[in-house]
Amino acid sequence: MIKFDKVSKVYKNGTRALNDISLEINEGEFVYIIGKTGSGKSTLIKILDGEEIPSSGTVTVFDTNVGKLKKRKVPLYRRNIGVVFQDFRLLPKKTVFENVAYAMEVVDTPKDQLRPRVREVLKLVELTEKSSSYPRELSGGQQQRVAIARAIANRPKILIADEPTGNLDPKMSGDIISLFERINEEEGTTVLIVTHDIHTVKAHPKRTIEIDSGHVARDRAEGLKDEDNKTILQED
Question: Is 0.70 topped by the overall pTM?
Answer without folding.
Answer: yes
